Amino acid sequence: MQNRASQYRIEKVTMIKCFLAFLFTVIIAFSSVNVQVLSESESEEVEVEVEVEVELPAKQDLAQTEFEPDPEKYYCHATIDQNFADNAVLVVIKPLYGGINKEFSKSQFSTENLNGDVSFKEIKDLTYLDKPIEEYQYLKIGMHKQIFKLTLEKPGKQNVLDTIKELEKLDFIESAEPNYHGTFY
């Protein structure tokens, strides 16, 4: 009977050690770990003390820089040779910042605080809903993204591309694209 209890205890200790090895492998990927295994003798139960230290980056390290792309953005790769309107930019607002029929002013799209000096003749909400929300059967409130057409004061394809690069720096913008001309066959 004593032998059986001893065998059970050894299997239990082995299982605990295997589990801890697996757990530590996972934890090490995300933090530094200090482990101490305390045991008075082989035949007694094993006590395990785990101390986990997680190093969080400083707040300024979490801030987006111009060299780190925002994973919540879609960056434009348009070229001047592509077929798009020379006087407008289409902008998608991140759901966290937008909303159904939420109003935005020209000044909110201002890039003066960045590196550019872009002005807009008009901003138009292309996703504006003119009926009560209840009448839109397939509308998903949390999934709705506002899309705006920004008409530039100063037309030109290069101005469109420059404006897009500046707008992409604004936190609330998910994407900025030219207003492409489509061809139907």
Description:
With 185 residues, the protein is of the alpha+beta class. The chain has 2 domains: 2-55, no CATH class; 84-180, Alpha-Beta Plaits (2-Layer Sandwich). 23% of the residues lie in helices and 24% in strands. It contains 3 helices and 6 strands. It has helices at residues 2-28, 59-62, 157-167; strands at 32-38, 47-53, 84-93, 120-125, 147-152, 173-180. It has a 4-stranded antiparallel β-sheet, covered by helices on one side. It has a two-stranded antiparallel sheet with strand order 1-2. β1 (32-38) and β2 (47-53) form a beta hairpin. The radius of gyration is 29 Å and the shape is elongated.
Under CATH, the topology of the largest domain is which? Alpha-Beta Plaits
**DSSP strand (E) fraction?**
15-25%
Strands ordered across the widest β-sheet: 4-5-3-6
Biggest sheet: strands, sense, closure?
4 strands, antiparallel
Q: For the record, what CATH class of the largest domain applies?
A: Alpha Beta
CATH architecture of the largest domain: 2-Layer Sandwich
Question: Which H/E pattern describes the elements?
Answer: HEEHEEEHE
Count helical runs: 3
Number of domains: 2
Category by helix and strand content: alpha+beta
First-last Cα distance: 86 Å
> In percent, how helical is the residue content?
10-25%
Strand element count: 6
Gist?
This protein has 185 residues and is α+β, with helices and mostly antiparallel strands.
Features:
single chain, 185 residues, alpha+beta, Alpha-Beta Plaits, 2 domains, two-stranded antiparallel ribbon, 3 helices, 6 strands, elongated
